[in-house]
Amino acid sequence: MTLMRMKMEEIIPPQQAKNQFQNSPYYTQQREPVTLDIFDFDSTLFLSPLLSCNLWHSSFIDFITTENLLGPGWWRDIRSLQVDALDSQWKGFWNEDIVSQVKQSMLDPTHMTVLLTGRRYHPFHQLIESVLAAKGLRFDVVGLRPDPAQVFEQNQFMFNFEPNVFATTMEFKTCFLVQMLQNVPTLKNIVMWDDRTAHIGAFRNYLKMMVCQKIIETGNIISVPAAKPKYNPVWELETVQKMISRHNDAVTELKNKGKLLQENVFIEANGKVMSSNNMFGLKKVPAIPILELDDELSKRLKSMFEPDYIQDLSTMTHSEWELDYAEVPEYFGTSVLLVEPVSHHNEFTILARSKATLEDGMVLQVQLSQDKLILPLWYRPSSFNHLSRKTYTWIPVPEINSLRGNFGYHELITIETL
């Protein structure tokens, strides 16, 4: 259970957290702000890269996000933020709506503008400072989770078994809030921006309790739709392969010295128990039964339905940055999603199309034997696991008969031991 501390005597701030405040731009100022504006980083302000569920098996995503199993783990590995955007101020990786809110807060002397993230101080502090500076965002304080308090530089891509100061990101963030109220006693109000549903609910209750105990006068949290960057499967695969290669090199080096990792982390994946002392590779596994279309039919469907897709989207209003930089539906149009494998029926009829939206893309309703199924044309890669469970508004189309596909499986990438 996450500790939700509210008073300074309940916490012992780690030295690194104290240093972040004392080294901040605000520390030397003579302002007395009354409102604390706190912005989350990943998927709130910044379009942090994520792994796409149309490429990666859920077991692998669980695997790579487990700390100290494959190197430090995705959220502690600096390569998860190393995108090729240094020469363009990370153009295409910003939620411009939130950037505007940050800049508005920065201009108001009665507001204290803070970036608060669960990203670790090591190894992210220099990279995040560069990212913010490139956008011209000068926060009064940047708070990164100080777990661990120090790390050896030569170990930055490997494992980290220094004890954590905080059990969870939520515990760190609530302790940070208490410390800020202690350090800046003029603060009376707190406004937070966050994208994570679980955090939003927890912080909403936490701020209510703070108001009830008269620690602050008002507390509000603004729910931000999670913002993801453009689909970039090449970057995803290259980054994961680098992480695996570095992990394997580290394990090999230790074994050559007759050593094992200080602490062995285990996880069950694909019916096998794997540990951080293993060496790993990638493999594809069959995941979802499909009726696969050939390239000619896929291109034909795109040509037929793209005018409707464009027309539907033209009637909707969207932020320019969303269309240019954020994740949007991509055209796939390669397969009918089946409920179960089929052996004899491979001929289907198109009955209807969905109304296209930037959120859900466009899918076709098809009939295969007695079953009504979907053939996704455009969709967001991050929504792949939910395509069959979505509710669509169907628009009938003239029936297109005698279309064929070949039975197969949509394959996803997962981990294997070597």
Account of the protein in words:
It holds the Pfam family HAD_SAK_1. It comes from Helicostylum pulchrum. The chain has three domains: 8-223, no CATH class; 233-284, no CATH class; 286-415, no CATH class. It is 29% helix and 25% strand. The protein contains nine helices and 15 strands. It has a five-stranded parallel β-sheet with strand order 3-2-1-4-5, with helices on both faces. A five-stranded antiparallel β-sheet has the order 9-13-12-11-14, with helices on one face. Strands 10-8-15 form a three-stranded antiparallel β-sheet. Strand 11 and strand 12 (362-368) form a beta hairpin. The longest helix is centred in the middle third of the chain and has 24 residues, at 233-256. The chain is globular and about 75 Å long. 33% of the residues are buried. The model has no long low-confidence stretch (mean pLDDT 88).
